[in-house]
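Class, study these two lines:
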Amino acid sequence: MPLSTRIPDLAALDLLLSVIELGSLGRAAQAHGISQPSASSRIQQLERTVGVPVLERSARGSRPSPMGELIAAGAKEVVDAAHRLEMTASTLRSQRGSHLQVAASQTVSDHLFPKWLTALQERRPDITVTLMACNSREAGEAVLAGHADIGFVEGPKAAPEFDTHVVARDRLVTVVAPQHPWARRTAITVTELAEASLIQRETGSGTRAVFESTLVTRVPAWQPRVLLALSSNTAIKNAVACGAGSAILSSLAVHRELAAGSLTAVTVQGFEPSRSLRAVWPTGQRLVGAARELHTIACRSTPRP
């Protein structure tokens, strides 16, 4: 229900209480940091709003009129409630400032965020951080819904509803088990890759989106052939290592397995997809506080695949 236009201005009510307490319009004006003419104008506007005189002025100062005393009694409750509301809002701002909510793609969550978090905690030990590890589409949705202060996504490009900044780059690698026929070859062709059934991430994954959008530029008639769709890089790596098939994953996600020999990287002639990893936040908004600090840390930690 909308408030009546006859409801007095909160600042005017607060000033009225100060006049009554201090006994002088001039002293009340000084206490509120305004000029006496401004204070007088504010009281006059209050009287026009309520429709009755609220002060009786004399050479000895100002005192409330009988009707002003009734207005002042109600004003005290309103002003006290406003102070309580301001304190509640201040507490909530303080709590929000000490809690950072982040939504990030799995690649970022698993391989980049731990280092960023360590650096952030060194700078801001008071900050509590909550990380939502998901795919890029879900990370973007969390940011737009207000469930995350900042997001980190992968993909061919950023959606227009986001302001964005590239914080890192990586490349995608075709991987197979050491016993796979491709592992014994110097290289395979793009056509062979396009004809293979692959173990892929789920729809909404930035890794999958970049791979598919890049491959279709090389093989325009290509249609995805998904042998198995899994929602985690770890599950895909395990499936590939067991000989279930081939996959395309971030170089960040497979560097340990490649070094250990449990997976083998396959060279695809003329096909080396790379991608940008981006920080995202709603268009038109500014990153502030811990979100801004995390963004700065991420920008200074660009991996070199």
Remarks:
- The domain at 99-299 is CATH 3.40.190.290 (D-Maltodextrin-Binding Protein; domain 2).
- Residues 172 and 272 are 7 Å apart (CA to CA).
- The chain has a mean pLDDT of 89.
